[in-house]
Amino acid sequence: MKSKLFEISEPPPNLSKVSLTGNAMSDFYKTLKGVSQGIYKEKMSKFIAIAQPAANADEAKALIKQIANKYHDARHCCWAYMIGTDRSEYLSSDNGEPSGTAGKPILGQINSFGLTNVVIAVVRYFGGIKLGTSGLIVAYREAARTAIEAGEILECHEQATLSFTFPYLAMNDVMKLVKNGDLKVLDQQFDNVCTMTVQTDADKMPSIRERITKIDGTSFIE
Predict the structure, then answer these.
(1) What is the three-class DSSP state of 188?
(2) In the listed set 103, 138, 156, which residue is the last one of a domain according to the structure?
C-alpha cells in the first residue's frame, strides 16, 4: 500500500545554505531551463526521474502530484524540491521507501549541482528484487543526477519589483528612467495620478529607488 504523497524527510546534514548578505555573487542562482528526464535500472527495478523548474513550493507540489498521477502504477513516487535564491526552503519525501533512502539522495543531488527553484520526482517500478538500503540510496541518487545532467542549467539573476505613484506631469521623467534604468514594466495605469510597477536585477533596485525619489511628486506603494 502506498504511503501519503507528502511524507516529509529531514534535509541532509551537509546541505549548504547560501547567504544573501556580504556576497555579490549571491544575487545569482542556478536553476533548470525546462523539464528533463533520467532513467536508472538496477536488478529489474526501473527508476524514472523527472526534473523541472518550480517558482515556489505550491508549484513544486502541484508538479509532484501531476507526476504521481501520470505514473500511478509505479510502486513509489519519491521527490525533493528546493526554493528561493537563498536556497532556504526545501522538502523531500521517501514515499514509503525506507527512511533516508530516497528523498535525501534526491535532495542531495539538487544541492550538489547548486540548484534552486527546482523539483525532482523519481518514480520506481519494482522489479521483484530488493536492493537494500545502500542500493536504494545509489539508485535514487543516480536517477536524480541523470535527470539533472540531461537538462540545461541556467544562471539567473535575482529580480526585485517596485511599485510607485507619480503625477501625470512627471511622465517624461519616469519614462526616461524606465528606458535608461533597463527596467521591465510589469503594470502601469495613467491618470491624474499614475501608478507603475517595475522589475529589475535585485542589486540595481536601491539605485533605481533613489532615482525615483528625485522625481517630483513620486511616492512608493509598500
Answers:
(1) strand
(2) 156
Quote the longest CA-to-CA distance of the chain.
75
- Of 134, 156, 178, the one marking the end of a domain is 156
Cell readout for 71 is 505514473
Kindly state whether residues 129 and 163 are assigned to the same domain: no
Q: What gap in Å lies between CA 178 and CA 55, rounded to an integer?
A: 26
User: What local confidence, expressed as pLDDT, does residue 203 receive?
Assistant: 86
DSSP-assigned states of every residue in 64-115: HHHHHHHTTTSSEEEEEEEESTT--EEEEE-TTSSTTSSHHHHHHHHHHTTB
Instruction: Quote the pTM value.
Output: 0.72
Which residues, in sequence order, are CB contacts of 193 under 8 Å at separation 6+? 165, 166, 167, 168
The answer to whether residue 213 is domain-embedded is yes
Check whether residue 176 and residue 100 sit in a common domain: no
Which of 166-170, 201-205, 217-221 shows the lowest per-residue confidence on average (mean pLDDT)?
Answer: 201-205
Residue-number span of the structural domain to which 121 is assigned: 24-156
79 vs 96: CA distance, rounded Å: 11
Is 42 domain-assigned?
yes
Model confidence pLDDT, tens digit, residues 145-180: 999 999 999 988 888 899 999 999 999 999 999 998
Cα–Cα distance for residue pair 215/180, rounded to 1 Å: 14
Rounded to 5 degrees, φ, ψ at 18 are -90, 125
Radius of gyration (C-alpha) of the chain in whole angstroms: 22
